[in-house]
């Protein structure tokens, strides 16, 4: 195992009424929680075979007895602040701890595959930054080899501006970058595969 590579997963603690709130507006909080649990299972399946160090960042509390095996996944609570501040602090900690290729993903992307995550590390060998753009204008993956705080600041999080604004910052900072396939996040009922609505 290459201990220089780190995969960080930002997840929410799966609590009724606190996950997938935009989806819950259409299908109700119970169904939204059920969908979120399936998304977590998918994300674990995608990441479990990837031969890098893995760290789950929880929104509220660390759960040592959940679907993320303790021997495979380190566990921490997300740093305080908005999403940008949380991610910046998580990347800063990773580099301070000696990692040289750090990738972050969420748990909202059903189309994510192990191959795409591995591709991110491969592209980082040749580029400063790698981004996996989402169809809604955000991104499902971000990777870098050292901290670039400008990528996390002055962003309109949870809007369609996140990816274009981030790309603009990458170009302004004159960083080399690579893009991964554009995938869909699950935020609204339209994003769901019909099997989730049975």
Give structural notes:
The radius of gyration is 16 Å and the shape is globular. The termini are far apart. The chain is built from five helices and seven strands; from the N terminus they run βααββαβαββαβ. With 198 residues, the chain is of the alpha/beta class. Helices cover 32% and strands 20% of the residues. The chain has helices at residues 21-27, 29-48, 83-96, 114-124, 162-172; strands at residues 2-11, 52-58, 74-77, 101-105, 129-133, 139-144, 177-179. A hairpin with a 5-residue loop joins strand 5 and strand 6 (139-144). It has one domain (2-197): Spore Coat Polysaccharide Biosynthesis Protein SpsA, Chain A, CATH 3.90.550.10. It comes from Pontibacter diazotrophicus. This is Glycosyltransferase. Keywords: Transferase.
Record the strand order, biggest sheet.
Answer: 3-2-1-4-6-5-7
| Average of per-residue pLDDT values | 92
What is the second-level CATH architecture? Alpha-Beta Complex
Count of individual beta strands: 7
* Whole-number total of structural domains: 1
Largest sheet: 7 strands, mixed
Q: Any idea what the CATH superfamily is called?
A: Spore Coat Polysaccharide Biosynthesis Protein SpsA, Chain A
Q: What's the overall geometry?
A: globular
Structure at a glance:
The chain has five helices and seven strands; from the N terminus they run βααββαβαββαβ.
């Amino acid at each position: 195992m290459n201990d220089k590579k780190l995969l960080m997963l930002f997840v929410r603690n799966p609590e009724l009424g606190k996950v997938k709130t935009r989806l819950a507006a259409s299908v109700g909080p119970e169904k939204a929680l059920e969908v979120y649990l399936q998304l977590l299972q998918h994300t674990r399946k995608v990441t479990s075979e990837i031969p890098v160090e893995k760290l789950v960042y929880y929104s509220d509390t660390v759960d040592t007895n959940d679907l993320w095996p303790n021997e495979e996944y380190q566990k921490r609570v997300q740093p305080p602040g908005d999403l940008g501040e949380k991610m910046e602090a998580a990347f800063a900690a990773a580099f301070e701890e000696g990692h040289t290729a750090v990738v972050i993903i969420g748990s909202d992307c059903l189309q994510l595959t192990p191959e795409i995550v591995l591709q991110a590390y491969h592209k980082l060998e040749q580029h400063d930054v790698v981004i996996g753009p989402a169809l809604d204008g955000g991104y499902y993956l971000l990777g870098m080899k050292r901290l670039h705080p400008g990528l996390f600041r002055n962003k309109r999080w949870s809007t369609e501006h996140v990816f274009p604004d981030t790309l603009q910052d990458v170009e302004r900072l004159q960083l080399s970058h690579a893009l991964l396939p554009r995938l869909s996040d699950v935020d609204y009922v339209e994003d769901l595969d019909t099997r989730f609505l049975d």
